[in-house]
Write a structure and sequence with these properties.
GO terms for molecular function: aspartate 1-decarboxylase activity. The chain is mainly β and about 130 residues long. The chain is about 5% helix and about 50% strand. It has one helix and nine strands, in the order βββαββββββ. Strands 2-6-3-5-4-7-1-8-9 form a nine-stranded mixed beta sheet. The N and C termini lie far apart (about 35 Å).
């Protein structure tokens, strides 16, 4: 049996742009992607902390060091520039490996800089 487990998480990133006229997806700075083990075209779930919207799309890598978090296409109607979002990727993990699985969690600041890297969800996250 396989379980769907959190694999990577970008916690409390700020939306830098919402581009309704783009085909679709989310553009994320390549440095941030590498830190959490996410890749181009990977499916992700996005949670908007400002309005509760939850949606799925796929990743387009953004310019390295740009700190870009841009929601593209129709999903741009679910966010505004400056909104705080959580971006989550998942992986199918075999039952016998779930206890060894360690996700990569990037805690972000208001400038979309990684301030801390975790390998498990804390019991309580202080904001």
């Amino acid at each position: 049996m396989f379980r769907t487990m959190m694999n990577g998480k970008i916690h409390r990133a700020r939306v830098t742009e919402a581009n309704l006229n783009y085909v679709g997806s989310i553009t994320i700075d390549e440095e941030i992607l590498e830190a959490v083990g996410m890749v181009a075209n990977e499916k992700v779930q996005i949670v908007n902390n400002h309005n509760g919207a939850r949606f799925e799309t796929y990743i387009i890598p953004g310019k390295r060091g740009s700190r870009v978090i841009c929601i593209n296409g129709a999903a741009a109607r679910l966010v505004q520039e400056g909104d705080v979002v959580i971006i989550i990727s998942y992986a199918l993990v075999a039952e016998e490996n779930i206890h060894a699985h360690q996700p990569k969690v990037a805690i972000m600041n208001e400038k979309n800089e990684i301030v801390e890297m975790l390998h498990a969800e804390p019991e309580k996250t202080i904001i």
